């Protein structure tokens, strides 16, 4: 009986095949732009500028990628990759550290001004950097932080999403643990290091995945504050590789750069899929 | 919710919150305050002094036909992006949910585009539709359709919408898929015994049960299309042709950094601030509702 009903709900036989066909078709359509970029990064410029370009990879993979990585257009792509890596890790680590500390303070202490602080961080949730770009740019310029890693990182960690997440999580830690720590005479920081941080491991990892992608994929902010090509990140640097005016873009190198730009976040997302999905659900709800 | 057990002392917590207070004050509150303040002034062309104009910048903006056009463009853009990213995602999630085996493999494949930055997605789609070398535009040309998003505003809008929706399909798929998996099998099976066919079950049982997720995704996708699509628009169209893809965030950038019109740009920031505030309230109202669902 149960098996029969199962058959009514899930697909079997011809219907099952049709479902797979639909699914594969969907995946192929979604994948097509990436495939085309990959193909373009393995052929020669003349093959692309005389349309239609081939739809199967050529033999120029090594040439195009090494040209992109070590000479690029304005600056070697290897340099931009390094800048992106510093920015993404800086944002992820920086935000996690300051949020862990302040969430611990608001959950485990009663101090004057606690409510004001709580509302203050609540406000920062509402305003993405895109809305306050001009004055934030002026602040960063005033500190002389244009074209620096600090300028790339700090303004983007000034939001409290992570603080909220950790607060929610800390509230679920059983009170008995803090009680026991207090009875044993452990200092608050001891309790933080030995109990709270280890217990938050999974949350920290999930958040790291989300923040890494967030930092890596930033566009507008690096575009404004890195005027020196040596400081460009890869995501914003690609646009700078297009020539101005009527010159033909060096498509194979540009496409090799796009593939290079998506490899690190894709590796992070696909290899840490479980953590990633958990992080997504946590950070949005 | 509060903790029953807490630690004593005030300087430890003060030190703990100090980094966040400092960063928020310097890089958030001060600039946000500046945006509001600057929106009340018009700086002279040399940037030496500025004149207080009260709400003049706002009055000017609301009377400016380019700004109003940008509002309409933004509204259309976000509606299209939301629809184009949610409907295919729901479709794929419903199909994936019918599979007993193998849905994990498809999920892994479908997550990919989410990791691709909007600006990179812009470059990929620009490449496919490039008027000179694009594969898709070449085949369209063979079919007798002359694609040119550089001159045609409607085609430019279509292209930025598709490029912005593409990566979002993955995101929406993940949420829809998770929600579908959470629909109790017993309910579906009971309906199946009563003779309800697949589409009947979908419309009368599954879709209503998905409504919290759907509403949540609606809000999140609108916010996304407002703020995070800057990279797509900047790489593909730079707001053109004739401002047909200039959304509000793009205009803040274009007027503030390219046009150097700080007063107007700040006033636009403040207006955007209200829009975000409104969306946030909608979102929180929804969260409350969902608790009672």
Keywords, separated by commas or semicolons:
heterodimer, A: 285 residues, mainly alpha, 16 helices, globular, disordered N terminus, B: 293 residues, MetI-like fold, two-stranded antiparallel sheet, 12 helices, 2 strands, 75% helix
How would you explain this protein's 3D organization?
The complex is a heterodimer of chains A (285) and B (293). With 285 residues, chain A is mainly alpha-helical. Chain A has helices at residues 2-9, 13-40, 45-49, 61-70, 77-108, 114-124, 133-142, 149-153, 161-171, 175-183, 188-199, 201-216, 220-225, 234-240, 251-271, 273-284. In chain A, helix 4 crosses helix 15 (251-271), helix 5 packs across helix 9 (161-171) and helix 5 packs across helix 12 (201-216). Chain B is mostly helical and 293 residues long. In chain B, 75% of the residues lie in helices and 2% in strands. In chain B, a hairpin with a 6-residue loop joins strand 1 (41-43) and strand 2 (50-52). Chain B is globular, with a radius of gyration of 24 Å. In chain B, 41% of the residues are buried. The chains are: A mainly alpha (285), B mainly alpha (293). Chains A and B meet through helix 1, helix 2, helix 5, helix 6 and helix 7 of A and helix 1, helix 3, helix 4, helix 5 and helix 6 of B.
């Amino acid at each position: 009986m149960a098996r029969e009903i199962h058959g009514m709900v899930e697909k079997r036989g011809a219907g099952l095949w049709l479902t797979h066909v639909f699914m594969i078709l969907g995946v192929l359509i979604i994948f097509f732009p990436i495939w085309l970029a990959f193909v373009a990064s393995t052929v020669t410029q003349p093959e692309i500028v005389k349309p239609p370009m081939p739809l199967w990879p050529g033999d120029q993979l090594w040439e195009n990628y090494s040209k992109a990585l070590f000479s690029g257009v304005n600056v070697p792509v290897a340099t931009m990759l390094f800048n992106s890596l510093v920015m993404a890790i800086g944002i992820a680590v920086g935000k996690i550290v300051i949020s862990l500390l302040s969430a611990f303070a608001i959950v485990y202490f009663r101090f004057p001004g606690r409510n004001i602080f709580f509302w203050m961080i609540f406000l920062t949730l509402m305003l993405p950097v895109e809305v306050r770009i001009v004055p934030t740019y002026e602040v960063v310029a005033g500190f002389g932080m244009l074209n620096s890693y600090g300028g790339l990182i700090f303004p983007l960690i000034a939001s409290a999403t992570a603080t909220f997440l950790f607060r929610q999580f800390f509230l679920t830690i059983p009170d008995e643990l803090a009680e026991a720590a207090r009875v044993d005479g452990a200092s608050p920081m001891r309790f933080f290091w030995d109990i709270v941080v280890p217990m938050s491991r999974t949350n920290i990892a999930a958040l790291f995945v989300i923040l890494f992608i967030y930092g890596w994929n930033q566009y507008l902010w690096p575009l404004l504050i890195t005027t020196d090509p040596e400081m460009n990140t890869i995501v914003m640097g690609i646009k700078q590789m297009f020539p101005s005016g009527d010159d033909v873009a060096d498509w194979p190198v540009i496409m090799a750069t796009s593939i290079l730009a998506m490899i690190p976040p894709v590796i992070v997302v696909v290899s840490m899929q479980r953590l990633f999905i958990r992080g997504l659900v946590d950070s949005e709800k | 919710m509060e903790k029953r057990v807490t630690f004593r002392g005030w300087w430890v917590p003060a030190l703990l919150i100090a980094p966040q207070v400092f960063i928020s004050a310097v890089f958030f509150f001060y600039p946000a305050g500046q945006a509001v303040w600057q929106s009340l002034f018009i700086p002279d062309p040399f940037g030496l002094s500025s004149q207080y104009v009260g709400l003049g910048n706002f009055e000017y903006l609301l009377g400016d036909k380019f700004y109003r056009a940008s509002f309409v463009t933004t509204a259309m853009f976000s509606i299209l992006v939301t629809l184009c990213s949610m409907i295919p995602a729901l479709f794929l999630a419903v199909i994936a949910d019918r599979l007993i085996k193998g849905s994990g493999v498809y999920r892994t494949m479908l997550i990919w585009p989410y990791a691709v930055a909007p600006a990179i997605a812009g470059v990929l789609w620009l490449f496919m539709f490039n008027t000179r070398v694009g594969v898709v535009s070449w085949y369209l040309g063979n079919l007798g359709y002359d694609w040119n998003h550089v001159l045609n505003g409607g085609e430019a809008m279509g292209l930025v919408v598709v490029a912005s929706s593409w990566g979002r399909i993955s995101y929406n798929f993940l949420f829809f898929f998770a929600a579908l998996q959470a629909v109790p099998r017993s309910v579906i099976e009971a309906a199946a015994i009563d003779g309800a066919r697949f589409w009947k079950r979908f419309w009368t049982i599954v879709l209503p049960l998905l409504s919290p997720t759907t509403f949540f995704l609606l809000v999140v996708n609108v916010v996304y299309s407002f703020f995070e699509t800057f990279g797509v628009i900047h790489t593909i169209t730079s707001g053109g042709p004739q401002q047909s893809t200039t959304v509000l965030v793009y205009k803040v950038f274009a007027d503030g950094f390219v046009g150097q019109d700080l007063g107007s740009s700040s006033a636009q920031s403040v207006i955007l601030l209200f829009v975000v505030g409104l969306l946030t309230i909608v979102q929180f109202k929804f969260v409350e509702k969902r608790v009672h669902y």
